[in-house]
Amino acid sequence: MRYAQGGGLTDAERTTRERLRLQAVERFEGGQRNAEIADALRISVRSVERWRRAWRESGEAGVLSKGSAGRSRLSEAQIVGLERELEAGPVAHGWADQQWTLPRIKTLIGRLFHVSYTVEGTWRLLKRHGWSWQQPARRAIERDDDAVEVGRKETWPRVGPSRRSAAAGSSSRTGPGSR
Predict the structure, then answer these.
(1) Torsion-angle region of residue 42: left (phi > 0), alpha (psi -120 to 50) or beta?
(2) Is the overall model pTM greater than 0.85, yes or no?
(3) What's the rounded Cα separation, in Å, for the pair 119 and 104?
(4) CA 109 vs CA 74, 93, 116: distances in Å
(5) What whole-number percentage of the chain has pLDDT above 90?
(6) What is the secondary structure of 18-61 as a DSSP string?
(7) Of 24, 77, 137, 151, which is the most buried if we count CB atoms within 10 A?
(8) Cβ atoms of 100 and 65 closer than 8 Å
(9) Sequence-separated (6 or more) residues with CB below 8 Å from residue 113
(10) For residues 21 and 63, is the Cβ–Cβ distance under 8 A?
């Protein structure tokens, strides 16, 4: 699976790639040219050039693996803290109603932990930790059941049937239905 399709490297593949980069570092230190290293390690010259630049700028640490790109930026303790804060509700954090939205949760994460997530990243974080979107358990407080019933019994019948006939018509201007 390619990166764009949600794939990526497993830990074993990441370790293998890191080992290749470290072999390249040994060859950099031995004075070999990029093309020679690429041929010996069976990789592209472009990759060797990129690794050499990282090695020059940061030493061996520049070519070490930085871990999975999909890892959470919050620790387990922060996740537990976030869950506690979400249970307290949006009103406890200054919002007017009791509805958690992804943008609100994103803002809360930023306020509490000084970590920036996108709305989509917030959704992935919540999903990864077993949270899901929920339907409200009750109806809105503002709902007026009497007004809904009046509308159903009195207003809706006055709206009347649709003006279109149920029979098939003709789109022709000279058709019998257009006279």
Answers:
(1) left
(2) no
(3) 9
(4) 9, 11, 7
(5) 38
(6) HHHHHHHHHHHHTT--HHHHHHHHT--HHHHHHHHHHHHHHGGG
(7) 24
(8) no
(9) 74, 78, 81, 82
(10) yes
